[in-house]
């Protein structure tokens, strides 16, 4: 009985699996398992118009709408779509980044803005001309512009500094882990530390069969890529073992944003049944012990 009860509780804890989400300019947000299975439309027409950039914080997805010029949020299952930055709050919305407490976005003419995670208290924090890509980690905000430079600031917008100037054109791909900064040029993916030092080539795009990186998300051992020719792809950190997860035959059109999510475990992820069974197990075990 103890073994059965423990097994059910552990199953409940492990019910929530990792998932990849992408924003598609065709008008939806899709989802897929890391192995390419279970391709679904998470937010469809009505909830999404032409989503551009995508971000995740906690149990919510955030995305910028290119035509409607607003920022929306939903639960990870696509429910409860809400506009948190309406049209007209700033002069357009483009790039998007989030932390656990704040939302960041670029505008057409007003630089970079920050608000609370629910969209309240929008504030201009960094004057900037054209922001081509933007990401954050737990310590800094990073962004690029048409000068092929990568900039860094504190999360409140202070201490703006240039961390790297590229001899090549830096494209949209930019990602920051807690220890490294990654960016894509027209020819290769590169990496440095968070100060822009120790720059290395990760892989050549043409060599591994990637046209252009529109966006990417990097974990400890995998790079997930939104490719400009309409594919969601996965590679090892060195560019090996390239796998197509989603493509045009699956309904993909123009993927422009991508995130990788491991939902926080719920020890009662199977709902009330798991809770009831756990209580029964506890009661039954005590009863059996008491009858010996």
Write the H/E string, N to C: HEEEEEEEEEEEEEEEEEEEHEEEEEH
Note the gap between the termini. 15 Å
Q: Rg to the nearest angstrom?
A: 21 Å
Which percent range fits the helix content? 10-25%
Contiguous low-pLDDT stretches (5 residues minimum) are 1-15, 267-292
Q: What is the structural class? A: mainly beta
Described by strand count, sense and barrel closure, the largest sheet is:
4 strands, antiparallel
The whole-number mean of residue pLDDT values reads 86
Verbal overview:
- About 10% of the residues lie in helices and about 45% in strands.
- The chain is built from 3 helices and 24 strands.
- β16 (about 170-175) and β17 (about 180-185) form a beta hairpin.
Architecture blueprint of SSEs:
Layout (H helix, E strand, L loop, with lengths): L1 H12 L5 E6 L3 E5 L7 E4 L7 E7 L2 E6 L4 E6 L6 E4 L10 E3 L3 E5 L5 E5 L6 E4 L6 E4 L3 E5 L4 E6 L6 E5 L4 E7 L3 E6 L2 E6 L6 E5 H4 L4 E6 L3 E6 L3 E6 L6 E4 L8 E7 L10 H19 L2
Antiparallel strand pairs: 1-2, 1-24, 2-3, 4-5, 5-6, 6-7, 8-9, 9-10, 10-11, 12-13, 13-14, 14-15, 16-17, 17-18, 18-19, 20-21, 21-22, 22-23
Helix pairs in contact: 1-3
Write a compact overview of the structure shown:
The chain is mostly beta strands and 292 residues long.
Quick tags:
mainly beta; 3 helices; four-stranded antiparallel sheet; 292 residues; disordered C terminus
